[in-house]
Amino acid sequence: LAKTTQPISMDSYEGQEVNITCSHNNIATNDYITWYQQFPSQGPRFIIQGYKTKVTNEVASLFIPADRKSSTLSLPRVSLSDTAVYYCLVGPFSGGYNKLIFGAGTRLAVHP
Amino acid sequence: DTEVTQTPKHLVMGMTNKKSLKCEQHMGHRAMYWYKQKAKKPPELMFVYSYEKLSINESVPSRFSPECPNSSLLNLHLHALQPEDSALYLCASSQAGENTEAFFGQGTRLTVV
To answer: pLDDT, tens digit, for every residue of A9-54?
Structure first.
């Protein structure tokens, strides 16, 4: 499975756009990139997933360059409630399940 | 219903006790997972069941014994645990196909005394 590298922590302020970059240099051809959010004492929550180019949903955008060796999660206009740990996961669909391996994650703190 | 329900929410057990954690989902997912998470660390994968068969055991000690009695239920049987096994135990499920969105439960906070 591809190893991922993210910043350990980030700080932002309410109303700003936050971009969290994940490096995955040895991503395989059939790997997808998925981001999860986790609040303290809760299970992770799916945010967004993509394979290439750009994906957008109601909460975030995911930018993936052509070489797919990195990806950027973009959170528009963050609020205090976006303070959480964000995990980037890289892996394939296979065998009826997905081996979801979490990296260290990025601890985002949003300040008033 | 997009919920994964874990019971109990909190559990305190002695090192000689036997207890079980339970996980239930009614989304028709055929892949189910157990994770262990220590404070300020990422979740660590323990077991994966696919179509009720154990597909992955990440070299977990035998004092943890998973069971998948049917497509909606996943149990984790605990026996002779150590204090260092105290953690948040998370269950997740996902469709057995192209969709990799995994749904996680709230977890069971386990304390071994």
So the answer is: 999 999 999 999 999 999 988 888 999 999 998 999 999 999 999 9
d(CA A77, CA A45): 19
Contacts of B107 in chain A (CB under 8 A): 41-43
Cα B111–Cα B112–Cα B113 angle in degrees, nearest 5: 115
Yes or no, beta carbons of B31 and A97 under 8 Å apart:
yes
| Nearest C-alpha neighbor of B36 from the set B94, B88, B97 | B88
Which residues of chain A does B100 touch, with a Cβ-Cβ cutoff of 8 Å? 32, 34, 49, 91, 93, 98, 100
The per-residue pLDDT for B95 is 85
Rounded Cα distance, A99 and B102, in Å:
11
